[in-house]
Amino acid sequence: MSRFWIHKPHAPDESSFFAMSELQQPVQIQMADGRIQEAKRQGSVILTCPISLTEEQTLLLTDVLFVPCLTKNLLSVTKLGEQGYLTLLRGKTGEIRQMDSNHLTARIQSHGGLYYLETKKEKSFMMETKTADVPTDTWHARLGHLNYHDVIR
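The chain above was modelled as a monomer; its predicted structure follows.
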């Protein structure tokens, strides 16, 4: 199962996830200082990424681990690749593209030796999930008109 490690910065708050569930087994994560932290929940997150002054794209992240102790979002380039995204880094900038279409999904900037994903401040929301047959068009609209390829995934 692909997993991203992400947490809303500076606010240990689960509201940035639009769907979340308890993990059957907590996932242990070793921090840079050697401490072990547990993720007990996972979910999905939609990020709105500006790609120009007038255009935005949505980045759907699934199997995201909620790690309450983190004060910054962490995003694994390897896990992006497992979910069909290509990450290109060039000096102090970069891009995230869809592997199958090469469509630009997000931009990356380097500051202080770290790369940061450019996102709009997302609206916090969470919803309960229930199993039901929902038409793709309905999910397309619910996910902010996310492209159909990512809706189906």
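Residues 51 and 86 are 15 Å apart (CA to CA).
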